Amino acid sequence: MTGIVALYIFMLAAFTGYEIIAKVPVILHTPLMSGSNFVHGIVLVGAMVALGNSHTTLEKVIGAIGVFMAAGNAAGGYVVTERMLEMFKSSGAKAGKPKSGGH
Q1: Does the pTM of the predicted model rise above 0.85?
Q2: Contact 82/52 with Cβ under 8 angstroms?
Q3: How far apart are CA 97 and CA 83, in angstroms?
Q4: Within its chain, how far is the Cα of 86 from the centroid?
Q5: N or C: which terminal CB in the chain sees fewer CB atoms within 10 Å?
Q6: SS3 at position 97
Q7: What residues does each domain of the chain span?
Q8: pLDDT tens digits, residue range 81-102?
């Protein structure tokens, strides 16, 4: 694959991703974020494969940056999802207190 073809595919993917995410209702963001964390895990595996198949120093540096960014993206996605889910818990559950049964 030539560099211009790879750049073209990247630009199409970026534009398509932006258009899809821009039209997602707020209520669906949490389930979508959980699903996208799975995709970020696959990106991390792909970055590790690319790093493992690198030969030149430039390829290794780019691969290492890719692995670092993919790992941060996946971990950050889980942190954001956890924080969003915390917003839906009641104040008693946040403090670790069991809910009273009305007694």
Answers
A1: no
A2: no
A3: 19
A4: 19
A5: C
A6: coil
A7: 34-86
A8: 777 778 777 766 555 555 555 5
